[in-house]
Design brief:
There is one protein chain. By secondary structure, this protein is α+β, with helices and mostly antiparallel strands. Helix content is about 20%, strand content about 25%. Strand 10 and strand 11 (about 165-170) form a beta hairpin. The N and C termini lie far apart (about 80 Å).
Length: about 170
């Protein structure tokens, strides 16, 4: 074999070795950091996003529980939407659905929050007995209703604030 052939073989093996090392590093990164959260909107690009994360799935009904026997004034206090007031998705609004909504980093969640302190399935909002409840789904960093950390499902009203890491959500009617 000539010297040129040996040099080319050595360089080829070196390139294969580095490709192998980078593929191992990629697998380890995905194992350590979990699922990548993709942004649903193009922030800072100056153009409107093609789809809004706040729109419910086609055919999803919004729910406005109207307990019987209450005045019209009390009926206005029932939340109908969720607004992100602080965090990467500030300004995003999501209508509350009869089936409830799950909030977290997982792409399957109704509201995908791009927050390092949010779990994959962080918390859920659901309607029961004519009112809305919030429940922490065993998140690592916790869900806060006002200043209180949730340990069990708690009822929420219009104006209640939820905090998930650096993301703050407010219930609106």
């Amino acid at each position: 074999m000539s010297e040129l052939t040996l040099t080319l073989l050595r360089l080829g093996l070196l390139v294969l070795l580095w490709l192998f090392i980078f593929s191992i590093a990629g697998v380890l990164r995905s194992d350590i950091y979990g699922t990548r959260v993709s942004r649903r909107s193009q922030r800072g690009s100056g153009r409107a996003p093609t789809s809004s994360p706040a729109r419910p799935a086609a055919g999803a009904a919004t729910v406005t529980p109207q307990p019987q026997g209450r005045s019209r004034r009390a009926a206005k206090r029932v939340p109908t939407s969720l607004l992100v007031t602080e965090g990467p998705l500030a300004g995003t609004s999501l209508p509350l659905r009869a089936s409830g909504i799950v909030i977290g980093r997982n792409p399957e969640c109704a509201l995908v929050v791009d927050d390092d302190y949010a779990s994959g399935r962080h918390c859920r909002l659901y309607a029961a007995d004519g009112q809305w409840f919030v429940e922490d789904l065993g998140s690592t960093n916790g869900t806060f209703l006002g200043r209180d950390r949730l340990t069990q499902p708690r009822p929420v009203q219009t104006g209640s604030t939820l905090r998930i890491g650096r993301t703050v959500l407010e219930l609106r009617s």
